[in-house]
């Protein structure tokens, strides 16, 4: 994506890492239906749960941050699936029945 | 992700190189792919290289299936660029239009009376000869080059530099007759039909354009077609 906000996200992730924090990156890798953020969108999380960027309209970020903290702890990359049915999609905030897959990885020194 | 990969990615982006971050989704293993030099992909499965190239051209991330499972290709593209050769009237119309369409515009004209900051405020201006200027600008596959002077001394070196690069669009202003003699000169310089097929000349879509602004519209429209409808992926679909 050539969208500018990405600058801040990866730049911030790097700053956090350089400052000695644990950092994880979450990236939208697949979308079906009307997902709110395009494939390639990113979110960076530090070890205190602070985050920058977005992978949805703002409603699954909480769940992604929780998984990101786990990834920071164990170092294992993981794939998250959200919004299987319309009803569930609504619960996690994918109001239009979209589905997204998010890859979460730790930033390693 | 390794910190060194992120450091390199950030440096590539700061230096405006198109780059693809390839991630094996099963293992998290990653590497950066570069497509601007044509050489960069020799050690890669051609199918992955083709997908990465299409991802850059369409500015769209994607996943390809490989023997090691799904490989996610995330694209980090610099802004689109337009290099105009010839700081003429059409350029004055085309600069703001291209900027609106998201291009970073540079204007090259060795005649400093034409290529002056007064005539082209807020644009990267070069009064070097096009071959030197373009060597510095390093046009890539997210760059369009349009020559507007009609003067072979100025246009030809720019076309030669463009043909040797990966630019997605080359346009050359001039009548059919001008274009025919241009191709003769380029043939003498060692170029052939495959190269000529890359040059849009006479430049622009046929929309009956008359004024400089209308010609600028026809050029920008043709650039858009080249950008959005001419990628390998689209052709195969």
Structural notes for this entry:
- The complex is a heterodimer of chains A (109) and B (237).
- Chain A is an alpha+beta fold and 109 residues long.
- Chain A has one domain.
- Chain A is 31% helix and 28% strand.
- Chain A has 3 helices and 5 strands, in the order H-E-E-E-H-E-H-E.
- Chain A starts with a helix and ends with a strand.
- Chain B contains 9 helices and 10 strands.
- In chain B, a hairpin with a 2-residue loop joins strand 3 and strand 4.
- The two termini of chain B are 33 Å apart.
- The chains are: A alpha+beta (109), B alpha/beta (237).
- The interface between A and B is medium-sized, with 25 and 25 residues.
* Number of helices, counting only DSSP H or I runs of 4 residues or more of chain B: 9
Distance between the termini of chain A: 25 Å
Q: How many beta strands in the DSSP annotation of chain B?
A: 10
CATH architectural designation of the largest domain in chain B: 3-Layer(aba) Sandwich
Low-confidence stretches of chain A at least 5 residues in length (pLDDT < 50)?
1-5
Q: Can you say what the CATH homologous superfamily of the largest domain in chain B is?
A: NAD(P)-binding Rossmann-like Domain
Strand order of the largest sheet of chain B: 7-6-5-8-9-10
The residue-averaged pLDDT of chain A reads 84
**Which two chains form the greatest contact, residue counts included?**
A-B, 25 and 25 residues
Using the CA coordinates, give the radius of gyration of chain A.
13 Å
Strands across the major sheet of chain A, in which order? Answer: 3-2-1-5-4
The total tally of domains of chain B equals 2
Residue windows where pLDDT falls under 50 for at least 5 positions of chain B: 232-237
Quick one: biggest sheet of chain B? 6 strands, parallel
- Helix content bin of chain A: 25-40%
Strand content of chain B: 15-25%
Q: Can you tell me the overall shape of chain B? A: elongated
Order of helices and strands of chain B: HEEHEEEHEEHEHEHHEHH
Number of strands of chain A: 5
Radius of gyration of chain B, CA atoms, in whole angstroms: 19 Å
How many strands, what sense, and barrel or not for the largest sheet of chain A? 5 strands, antiparallel
């Amino acid at each position: 994506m050539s969208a500018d906000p990405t600058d801040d996200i990866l730049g911030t992730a790097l700053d956090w890492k350089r400052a000695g924090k644990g950092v994880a990156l979450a990236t939208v890798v697949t979308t079906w239906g009307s997902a709110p953020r395009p494939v390639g969108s990113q979110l960076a999380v530090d070890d205190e749960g602070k985050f920058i960027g977005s992978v949805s309209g703002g409603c699954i970020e909480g769940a992604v941050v929780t998984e990101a903290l786990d990834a920071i702890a164990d170092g294992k990359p993981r794939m998250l699936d959200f919004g299987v049915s319309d009803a569930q999609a609504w619960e996690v905030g994918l109001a239009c029945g979209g589905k997204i897959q998010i890859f979460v990885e730790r930033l390693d020194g | 992700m390794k910190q060194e990969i992120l450091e390199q990615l950030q440096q590539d982006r700061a230096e405006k190189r198109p780059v693809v971050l390839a991630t094996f989704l099963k293992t998290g293993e990653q590497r950066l792919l570069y497509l601007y030099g044509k050489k960069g992909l020799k050690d890669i499965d051609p199918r992955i290289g083709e997908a990465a190239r299409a991802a850059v051209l369409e500015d769209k991330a994607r996943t390809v299936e490989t023997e090691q499972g799904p490989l996610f290709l995330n694209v980090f593209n610099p802004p689109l660029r337009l290099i105009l050769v010839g700081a003429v009237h059409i350029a004055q119309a085309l600069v703001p239009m291209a900027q609106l369409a998201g291009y970073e515009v540079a204007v090259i004209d060795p005649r400093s009376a034409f290529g002056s900051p007064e005539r082209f405020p807020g644009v990267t201006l070069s009064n070097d000869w096009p071959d030197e200027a373009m060597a510095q600008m390093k046009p890539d596959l997210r760059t369009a080059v349009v020559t507007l002077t009609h003067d072979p001394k100025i246009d030809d070196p720019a076309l030669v530099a463009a043909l040797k690069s990966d630019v997605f669009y080359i346009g050359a202003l001039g009548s059919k007759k001008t274009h025919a003699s241009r191709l003769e000169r380029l043939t003498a310089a060692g170029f052939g039909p495959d190269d000529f097929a890359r040059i849009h000349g006479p430049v622009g879509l046929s929309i009956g354009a008359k004024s400089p602004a209308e010609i600028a519209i026809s050029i920008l429209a043709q650039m858009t077609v080249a950008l959005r409808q001419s990628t390998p992926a689209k052709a195969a679909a």
